[in-house]
Amino acid sequence: MTKKIVAIGGGGCGNKKADGTISVYDNQTIDQEIIRLTGKEHPNFLFLSHAAPSNGQESYYKLMRNIYKDLYGCECKHLKGSQLNNEERVNEILAWADIIYEGGGSTVDMLRLWEKTGFGEKLKKAWEDGKVMCGLSAGGNCWFNECTTDVLKVLYGEDQPLIGVKALGFTPGHFTPHGEKEGREESLKEILKTSNEVGFLVSRCAALEIVDDKYKVVKSKDIAFAKRAYWKKDKFYIEDIEPSKELKPLEKILNR
């Protein structure tokens, strides 16, 4: 089976922001590419909101259903974090899904939940079975060997650094979402000093698509970007990964 990942750096989906305004839906091109990868006109869309607080998971699902059902005609279902101990329910809904999409939130809480319940192994089987594994922010982080998280900032204040943590390890690399935010590039530079991975810095409205051993960058906005970063002989390099309509060998962006 073809293995497919679409890791999105961020973007609005009509959610209410901290200042009270409503975000614009701006990942159309990426969502359309996710659907295309299934090979179906109206695939089954499964939303996971396991990185989100439990009291916000249902409202998050409704936002994504507004997109995938109302705009694209997908059948949509929601698997809450509280349902992961129901093995029969989990197996049934994963078998049903064509797209498995994790939203944003706390990467650390999400990964801890998946390890505790064994859900990470079930996701790996779904990926091996050809499901499109995707998501933004935490939902982009999870598929790589390593990723960047702001957990220390959440716990102890904004003066704390971003840190790297181990993720599911479906594909090589260290993923950093929200690459447009101030300080993200410098944080990745520091994190990679003690990592053997090549880093990927991906902004909102951009996604790194990985299909088996090939990749391409998909953008919904011209200002969006994806970059690769690495240390070589005590020198730090960061380079643009150009968008492309065609898949290219993954080793091209993994080699130093």
What this model shows, in words?
- It is a single chain.
- The chain has 256 residues and is α/β, with parallel strands linked by helices.
- It has a single domain, classed as Rossmann fold (3-Layer(aba) Sandwich), CATH 3.40.50.
- The chain is 30% helix and 28% strand.
- It has nine helices and 14 strands.
- It has an eight-stranded mixed sheet with strand order 3-2-4-5-1-10-11-14, sandwiched between helices. A six-stranded mixed sheet has the order 7-6-8-9-12-13.
- The radius of gyration is 17 Å and the shape is globular.
- The two termini are 29 Å apart.
- The mean pLDDT is 94.
> What structural class do helix, strand and pairing data support?
alpha/beta
**Number of domain modules:** 1
DSSP E strands, number:
14
Strand content: 25-35%
Biggest pleated-sheet summary: 8 strands, mixed
Largest sheet: spatial strand order: 3-2-4-5-1-10-11-14
Mean pLDDT across the residues is 94
Provide the CATH topology. Answer: Rossmann fold
Which shape, going by the Cα principal axes? globular
Radius of gyration from CA coordinates: 17 Å
What proportion of the residues is helical, as a percent range? 25-40%
Low-pLDDT ranges = none
